[in-house]
Amino acid sequence: MRGWLKLGVLALLLWAQGASAAGVLLVGDSISAGLGLDTRQGWVALLQTRMREEGFQQPVVNASISGDTSAGGLSRLPALLRQHAPEVVVIELGGNDGLRGQTPAQLQQNLAGMVEQSQRSGARVLLLGMRLPPNYGKRYTTAFAEVYPALAKQYDVPLVPFFLEGAAGIPSMMQADGIHPAANAQPLLLDNVWPTLKPLLKKS
């Protein structure tokens, strides 16, 4: 009996340790994967440093994949939630949907599925909004941009209206392809996210 009791206590301790270790899960595309950069330069790596500086010891798990879409993120998310049990899920997806001409309705459906799965797991959610270049046409770009605030309102989740604010369209802040932020833009991206993300974190 004592042996079973000890095993039960040990299991409870391990569960508690795992729960306290859960931190931020970032599900994104090449922008958060740091395409074209040393991974230490990317805004997600800078986020981990910022968190530690401000007393948040939880790990940041960067599950971003270059070229990923909202459909890809939706399919990958259940396994990521089971593996990492995050306290916060940051969703940075949609840019590739837009570049491929995916309908805003499908984007909204996929992101809604990610928000719902994350909330059911007990995680808080942060949405990072994206916008498309004007050459995609006003009607499409407007409908695309409206997906993010609509989801934030529907699910009562915080939103960074435009993740690339201050970098997009500025040649000195972008890599040669004009799509991916350069190394000097990464601290700016972090500053765009941090004021909205910080209130979602708990000191460990």
Spell out the blueprint of helices and strands.
Blueprint: H1 2-21, E1 24-28, H2 30-33, H3 43-53, E2 60-62, H4 70-84, E3 88-92, H5 95-99, H6 104-120, E4 124-128, H7 138-155, E5 159-160, H8 186-197
Helix pairs in contact: 3-8, 4-6, 6-7
Report on the structure:
With 204 residues, the chain is of the alpha/beta class. The chain has a single domain, classed as SGNH hydrolase (Rossmann fold), CATH 3.40.50.1110. Strands 2-1-3-4-5 form a 5-stranded parallel beta sheet, with helices on both faces. Helix 3 packs across helix 8 and helix 6 runs parallel beside helix 7. It is globular. The protein starts with a helix and ends in a 7-residue tail after the last helix.
Provide a quick synopsis of the model.
With 204 residues, this protein is of the alpha/beta class. It has one domain: SGNH hydrolase (Rossmann fold), CATH 3.40.50.
Rg over alpha carbons? 18 Å
CATH architecture, please?
3-Layer(aba) Sandwich
What is the spatial order of strands in the main beta sheet? 2-1-3-4-5
- The secondary-structure element order is HEHHEHEHHEHEH
* Overall strand count: 5
Count of individual helical segments: 8
Beta-strand content estimate: 5-15%
Helix content: 40-55%
> What do we call the CATH homologous superfamily?
SGNH hydrolase
Please state the overall shape, judged from the principal axes of the Cα atoms.
Answer: globular
The domain tally reads 1
